[in-house]
Write a sequence for this structure.
């Protein structure tokens, strides 16, 4: 394991952390993550209308998909999903076909089901992100894309050291500070099933990034 490959919290701690986050999540994150969400949703829709959102949370992205899409959202946290369901009901989001409790590493869908798998602010929290990426690639059709929105840790220097130092603390509250984008690129190279096609810096000031990986046809 490389020094940067810091382990995320286990799923029980993650569920606990997001049970606490659920009531205040939208107040803290809605505006902050809106530009990254818009970018990620646009990238997914460019691939087609069958979309899987892994770690859909309170469903902040769901109303950005057009009614012609068929969106499935999954998440580890029942408490976050309950909020997503309330949004679906309140806003009449008929593009959302299903919401289900599910672990990113064990997706209950057949191979090649989706045109795009979107996962925003999630992959760096999963204890075994390579296993999650394997699942994303499996349920994706050939030529489809994995779209990840996230903060990724600095590649080196003082900022990287600081991010690595605070990583254990960050993971206790369901955040991640030190996970590097290179880990995902390494996954793609080692598996040979997909390639990174773009890594774009977005608001605020490039702190968040949107990464697209295309599954080989
Ligand atoms: C920072 S929130 C992001 C929520 C949403 N994607 C957004 O952008 O607003 C992280 C979400 O990932 C979920 N999560 C964490 N680990 C997961 C896993 N292994 N499988 C599925 N969901 C997971 C958490 O429950 C939480 O809802």
């Amino acid at each position: 394991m490389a020094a940067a490959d810091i382990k995320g919290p286990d799923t029980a701690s993650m569920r606990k952390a997001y049970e606490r986050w659920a009531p205040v999540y939208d107040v803290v994150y809605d505006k902050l993550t809106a530009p990254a969400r818009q970018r990620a949703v646009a990238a997914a829709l460019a691939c087609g209308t069958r979309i899987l959102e892994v770690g859909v949370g309170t469903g902040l992205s769901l109303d950005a998909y057009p009614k012609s899409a068929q969106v499935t959202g999954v998440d580890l946290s029942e408490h976050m999903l309950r909020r997503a369901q309330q949004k679906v009901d309140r806003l009449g989001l008929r593009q959302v076909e299903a919401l289900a409790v599910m672990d990113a590493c064990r997706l209950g869908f057949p191979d090649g089901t989706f045109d795009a798998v979107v996962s925003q602010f999630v992959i760096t929290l999963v204890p075994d992100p390579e296993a999650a990426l394997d699942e994303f690639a499996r349920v994706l059709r050939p030529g489809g894309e994995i779209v990840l929105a996230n903060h990724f840790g600095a590649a080196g220097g003082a900022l990287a050291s600081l991010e690595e130092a605070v990583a254990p603390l960050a993971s206790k509250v369901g955040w991640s500070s030190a996970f590097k984008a290179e880990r995902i690129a390494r996954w793609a190279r080692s598996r040979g099933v997909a390639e990174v096609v773009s890594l774009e810096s977005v608001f605020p000031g490039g702190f968040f990034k949107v990464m697209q990986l295309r599954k080989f046809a």
